[in-house]
Amino acid sequence: MRPKGMIYIAIILLSVSFSQAEMVAIPRDNTQLREGPGSFYRLVGVLNQGAKVNLLPDDQNGWRKVVFGEQQGWISENALIATVPAAKPKSGGSILSGISTTTPNFISSASASGAIKGFALKFINLKQGDPTFADQYDYYFFTPEEYYRFKSETFAGRNPEKIRKRIKKIKGEDLNNGLSVDEESVGLAAAGKIAAMGLEMDLFRLKYLNLVCALVLENTPINEYNLRVYIVKDTRPAAYTTPNGMIFLTKGLLTLVQDEAELAGLLGHEIAHIVNHHGYKELGKRAAMITADKSFDELDEEIQPDEVQAELDDIALNCYEAATSRRQTGYEYEADRLGAIYAYRAGYDPEGLVRLLRRIKGASQRDFWHPESNWTYDAIGDRIEKVLDLIQRDLNKSPELNATFQIRYKTNIK
User: Fold this and answer.
1) Is the distance from CB of 65 to CB of 77 less than 8 angstroms?
2) Is residue 141 a contact partner of residue 228, using CB atoms and an 8 Å limit?
3) Cα-atom radius of gyration of the chain, to the nearest Å?
4) Less Cβ crowding at N or C end of the chain, within 10 Å?
5) pLDDT tens digits, residue range 45-67?
């Protein structure tokens, strides 16, 4: 039998722990509550704007441990400093709120997954996408243990915090640092259609690509979302990114990449499109219709009326077309700049992106390229010079801390 004194001590310690906890209100919707401090931990549920949580003293690598009701988990510190809260739907609610005009403070992972996957499947089935791809919404390519081992190997002999702090303030990032439920839903729908192009599901290569992506992702304002990287079988160099954080690299583009620093720059570029909501912005005013005048019964029932479903399908189709077409030049400049910074903060040589862009510019055979890709010789323009200017001006501290990992890349990809 446990001594009474020990029980009293445990109760006192627990009381002290909660008395030290600070209660705060979540400033934006779709804040991911995870089992551990990283996007690679399982999702516990979604916290929305106004949800009040107790911040526990525990913090780790930009994450805070919190308690919401009976739920305990970790949220990104970025979710607590959001300066532009997500707007509430004025009517009709959203995908996760049923027909209510308000969004619940907490939504379980099962409900969130079911609603987002359900929406995506309706579009995918209608537009001849890959229906099995909807299951990728809550799929993880590696375990937390595998990630920490990879990170430890990557930073052996180097201090990741010292590397990260070489550049603290980043200009040009979207201040609304979260992804909306609508971006996740429409993005997954569009991703399902991209997947129908044909994916190479080599789990060894996919695990490696996603580990590098997670390392770069830690140094961005959307570090709480489970971004995933896939390989499209197309031998023409191209890359597609959907608003929900799914990145598609073709086999042809991966053959041009020569080391891990170049891969990190490429992934940083694609992540930057997600950070600044480029894909969603390209939909223009049509995107606003996703959160306006929608009528849902229950999460697992058909959306009514039919006209609303058709409109949403059309928006998802526009999202697919935006992801697979050339982006505005201004977006490419933004993505190059942020991509080089994210790679640099993750300990990679920021000139990796420059080397890749130069290699692309040198491959000018027209039949070699996907005509709509931003990664073609005739879409580079003055991007190389702009990235070089950035590196020389802002990304030049302690260059001995930068890494390329050429052998590791070739071992895992070539």
Assistant:
1) no
2) yes
3) 22
4) N
5) 999 999 999 999 999 989 999 99
